[in-house]
Write a structure and sequence with these properties.
Distance between the termini: 30 Å
Number of helices: 5
Helix content: 10-25%
Largest sheet: 8 strands, mixed
Shape: globular
Radius of gyration: 16 Å
Structural class: alpha+beta
């Protein structure tokens, strides 16, 4: 799962390097945690080149109670609410890192060890005249599984354009095992037994 992520100046610089032109408001974005329902910068393929856009995080549920912020990669094509979006409106959510909480409710940070930015796979749709995105999750790999059983589907930089534009890449991406991540935790409960 992914319930919060962090964007910093390195993230914005990576976006600027990837896209053709960037909105001045996105360039001015400060370092911040991004929570569900907030606006975040995502990379889409609505044109011939990748472009950066601001969208709200989370799909509105049909019963209008809460937001859906994640979708399971394993079943996304089976869910009517997600199927068309993942087939036609894929996006990338760049972040410095994301957070999970362990069993004792301690915040744990996960990031790429040698890279300043990680790229989470997602998709978007329009709800009530607002573009909204969701982050795809997959089974947690060994670097995350001791904290949580799910993690974002992480893309390599070389996979960004195929993810957005190449329909043949979709099946591979939905079944890939994400790269190992570095774990950081300010406080970790130790057991004496």
């Amino acid at each position: 799962m992914c319930g919060r992520f962090y964007v910093d100046k390195e993230t914005i610089l990576a976006i600027e390097r990837l896209v053709a032109g960037i909105d001045h408001r996105i360039q001015l974005r400060r370092e911040a945690d991004i929570y569900p329902s907030q606006a975040a910068t995502v990379i889409t393929g609505r044109s011939q080149q990748l472009r950066a856009e601001e969208m709200q995080w989370g799909f509105l549920q049909y019963n209008k109670k809460g937001l859906l912020i994640n979708a399971r990669a394993e079943s996304v094509l089976e869910r009517k609410m997600f199927r068309d979006s993942v087939l036609q409106r894929r996006c990338i959510i760049p972040a410095r890192h994301f957070y999970e909480w362990d069993a004792q409710k301690n915040k744990v940070t996960f990031q790429r060890e040698q890279e300043p930015v990680l790229y989470m796979a997602g998709f978007y749709n329009r709800f009530q005249d607002v573009d909204r995105f969701i982050i795809l999750t997959t089974d947690a790999n060994a670097s995350v599984s001791r904290v949580h059983d799910r993690m974002p589907l992480i893309l390599e930089e070389s996979e960004l354009e195929p993810w957005v534009y190449d329909d043949n890449f979709l099946d591979f991406a939905l079944h890939k095992i994400p790269v190992q991540l570095q774990k950081y935790q300010e406080y970790e409960q130790q057991s004496l037994f």
